[in-house]
Fold:
Amino acid sequence: MIDRPIILVTGGAGYIGSHCCRALAAAGYQPVVYDNLSTGHRSFVAGLLVTGDLLDETTLARAFAEYKVAAVMHFAAASLVGESVADPQKYYINNVQGTLSLLKAMRNAGCRRIVFSSTGAVYGNADSKALPEDFPCAPINPYGASKWMIERMLADYRSAYGFGAFCLRYFNAAGADAKGGIGELRDNETHLIPRAMMALQGHVGDFAVFGDDYETPDGTAIRDYVHVTDLAAAHVSALKLLLEGHVGGSFNLGTGSGFSVREILSAIRQETGRDVPQVVKPRRAGDPPYLVADPSTSRRVLNFVPTHSDLSTIIRTAWSWHQKAHPLKQT
Structure:
């Protein structure tokens, strides 16, 4: 018998979800992972696993019936910007329709608390200032649009059905668990830091800087990088507030500081002592030049004070993980 509050974690076998499961367990909750393992990893699962897809209403209903779920953390989604531009249907089915299926199952089970994994991509093309939550949302790719649609859905569920819903808009998740057990691991890696490290290890032969003609100091895109461990802590804080009766809302999770692609590659060189082999290619469709959070509201409401998100810690923990997950390729 489980005597700790049960949290259903969709996508809990993935990168961010698995870190959050460990943070939940450390905080006294029992995570139950719901994942179809299409991109997640069974070895990342901490505790109980229900293998299922969000569009599988029967399996979802069975999970809620078997466990007395106090709240849901929702990470399950397709999340590649470039792929979303090429195949928007996949993103609207997986992300929007899948979430609607989850919300229906939650209502049927009487569970009305959810922490949702949103994204800074809901803002679209921003100026060169850190973005507050009231900056107009105008996503420029289907991935960001799907997340914005879900935020709108949750606002309606909050109003009509009494849901408590936090939408946590994180910017560029990065880094890895300090103990080295889990990190970023994808068959099709597109994110800058892990892809650069895989290039150093000989596993990526076509590493590219996409665009060096942005209106930024060095011509490359600027992003706000936040350590996955800090993201996990913020999710636990949001959950605690929901369980205390908070109605939720949309909150940025970032540091308020941005780094360009070239600055990241320089930091990787400092940590590893090696230059990342690279070529410059044209900008990718759907990529804004600048995306940095104003995290002041999260600091006030969620007590969100990142303690692992300095660039040195991000790169060091990511490199340690990649040396374990992707040993140097023998040539």
